[in-house]
């Protein structure tokens, strides 16, 4: 599996986090900015209208010109036209004068361009002195109110049939001439559109009691919100249109391309910087810990900050110092231990050599004593006491030979060079053979033997050595069981395990120390052990043989009974818990 370190993970997490944040901002801008902006603007417009109403319509007497000036200031400040309906149902609203003076056949004509100015500027018509132009409209006092542009540079333009068909404007007149002068305030097509729409909505929804009314212009698709506030007999109207928002949102896709490119670049740079600031100290700790894992304590982490990473570096350096000191102490202890083990090994070897040499040296004189003793017994008979004494000498010589044989056997097993000869056989047969060989003791002591052997007793082991184990343990049970008492010998199959158990009743069971039973020459009752014979090495040899076979074994004792058991695993030689 490919390695993906903390640096890559942290960088990926930060990059994804920033990307999601940018995505949320973009989605919010695309789907939630317009409703939020609209709601906020309408709320602010209503608040400003309330302020205007309280400041200017609080008294019954008002100055019309002053009110119009303040309405003009309100419209300029809020970019929304304001119209006040008086108690006389008169609509008051400030207007800009779009005036041009024409020279028509030597006659000076004053023309009001309020109505056609929007269409003119949308068509790209620029007013300049000397421009030959014509309008359709009507006269009001000494001023001609132009409705639409009809001629330009001496050429007639298509008439606005919808306007010509209006009943009130069927008698429109035409004026033409060259522009002598003109008065044109700063043109704001959006403001003019909003004011015209406001006038239309006031007329359409005059009797509607709602405070805010939505109107969608089918021609432009622009949403317009009529806002109305009443104050006594005065009614204040204003309008909020989504035209500026729509214009802004129309540029959003193109603008967002650049925003996304810049955001992704900055996101990448910021993620890289943050990753380096956090991960670099961690990588230093990792590199140093890798060297420490190879027992190289030559480096320490340079602490550059006092934050959590700096504290971690400080603790790591302290741990490295203590670990280095501890390892040095352990190495020193190991060297001392190796020296002690070497000395112990040398002593053990010396002991084994001594046992082997002593056994060899003792065997020669004992052989001579035995030979001469047997010769004397065979050829020279003096009296009964002589025969008795010579029998004692030969018996003791036999015991010493047995002791020497056991010492040599134990030394060979402890050398770890003994090679077992494994055979497959039925251990139940060997148990019965040992019992038969010890039958004389069984009869002399009138013992009660309870023998219960399993049907399946086939094992794979060194038969000679395992027979020695059985002889040592069963003979001990026969020898140390009081007269007329019980002995139990059984083999039990438990799945993949075979348990062999030899138990017997004993006297003074509290005096038996189970931990020392395997010790060389251990005798819980020295006088009784001497009487029973034995070298005191049988259980030590038994332990070595069972260890070589990797069997579980041990002693257990109850009220007046002691048990020795060992467990053979048919398919697995690993240690298993003893069966109960």
TrEMBL record:
Occurrences of domain HAMP (ranges): 276-328
Single GO term (MF): phosphoprotein phosphatase activity
One of the GO BP terms on file: cellular response to phosphate starvation
UniProt key word Methyltransferase: no
Matches recorded under InterPro entries: BphY/WalK/GraS-like, HAMP_dom, HATPase_C_sf, HATPase_dom, His_kinase_dom, HisK_dim/P_dom, HisK_dim/P_sf
Domain Histidine kinase positions: 357-554
Main location: membrane
UniProt enzyme class: transferase
Name the record gives this protein: histidine kinase
Phylogenetic placement of the source organism: Bacteria, Bacillati, Bacillota, Tissierellia, Tissierellales
């Amino acid at each position: 599996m490919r390695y993906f370190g903390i640096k890559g993970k942290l960088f990926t997490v930060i990059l994804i986090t920033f990307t999601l944040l940018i995505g949320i901002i973009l989605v919010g801008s695309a789907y939630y900015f317009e409703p939020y902006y609209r709601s906020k603007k309408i709320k602010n417009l209503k608040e400003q209208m309330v302020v205007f109403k309280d400041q200017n319509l609080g008294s019954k007497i008002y100055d019309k010109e002053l009110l119009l000036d303040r309405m003009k200031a309100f419209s300029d400040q809020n970019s929304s036209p304001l119209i006040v309906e008086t108690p006389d149902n008169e609509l008051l609203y400030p207007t800009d004068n779009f005036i041009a003076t024409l020279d028509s056949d030597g006659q000076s004509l004053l023309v009001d361009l309020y109505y056609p100015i929007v269409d003119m500027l949308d068509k790209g018509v620029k007013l300049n002195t000397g421009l030959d132009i014509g309008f359709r409209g009507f006269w009001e006092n000494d001023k001609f109110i132009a409705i639409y542009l009809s001629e330009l540079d001496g050429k007639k333009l298509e008439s606005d049939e919808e306007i010509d068909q209006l009943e009130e404007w069927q008698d429109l007149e035409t004026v033409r001439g060259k522009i002598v002068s003109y008065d044109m305030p700063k043109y704001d097509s959006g403001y003019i559109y909003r004011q015209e729409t406001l006038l239309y909505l006031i007329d359409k929804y005059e009797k509607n009691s709602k405070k805010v009314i939505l109107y969608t212009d089918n021609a432009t698709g622009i949403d317009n919100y009529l806002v109305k506030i009443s104050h006594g007999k005065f009614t204040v109207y204003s309008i909020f249109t989504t035209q500026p928002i729509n214009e802004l949102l129309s540029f959003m896709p193109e603008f967002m391309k650049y925003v996304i490119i810049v955001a992704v670049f900055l996101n990448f740079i910021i993620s890289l910087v943050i990753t380096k600031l956090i991960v670099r100290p961690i990588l230093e700790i990792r590199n140093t810990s890798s060297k420490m894992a190879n027992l190289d304590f030559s480096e320490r982490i340079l602490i550059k900050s006092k934050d959590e990473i700096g504290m971690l570096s400080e603790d790591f350096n302290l741990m490295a110092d203590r670990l280095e000191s501890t390892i040095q102490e352990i190495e020193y202890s190991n060297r001392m231990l190796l020296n002690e083990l070497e000395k112990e090994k040398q002593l053990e070897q010396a002991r084994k050599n001594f046992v082997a040499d002593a056994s060899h040296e003792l065997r020669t004189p004992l052989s001579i004593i035995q030979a001469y003793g047997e010769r004397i017994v065979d050829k020279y008979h003096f009296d009964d006491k002589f025969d008795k004494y010579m029998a004692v000498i030969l018996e003791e010589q036999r015991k010493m030979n047995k002791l020497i044989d056991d010492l040599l056997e134990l030394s060979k097993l402890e050398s770890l060079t003994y090679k077992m000869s494994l055979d497959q056989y039925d251990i139940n047969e060997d148990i019965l053979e040992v019992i038969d060989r010890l039958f004389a003791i069984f009869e002399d002591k009138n013992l009660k033997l309870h023998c219960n052997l399993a049907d399946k007793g086939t094992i794979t082991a060194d038969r000679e050595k395992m027979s020695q184990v059985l002889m040592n343990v069963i003979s001990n049970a026969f020898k140390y069981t009081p007269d007329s008492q019980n002995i139990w010998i059984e083999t039990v199959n438990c799945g993949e395990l075979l348990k062999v158990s030899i138990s017997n009743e004993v006297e003074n069971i509290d005096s038996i120390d189970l931990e020392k039973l395997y010790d060389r020459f251990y005798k819980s009752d020295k006088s009784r052990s001497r009487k029973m014979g034995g070298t005191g090495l049988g259980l030590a040899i038994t332990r070595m043989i069972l260890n070589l076979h990797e069997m579980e074994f041990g002693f257990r004792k109850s009220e007046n009974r002691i048990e020795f058991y060992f467990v053979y695993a048919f398919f697995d030689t690993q240690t298993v818990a003893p069966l109960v």
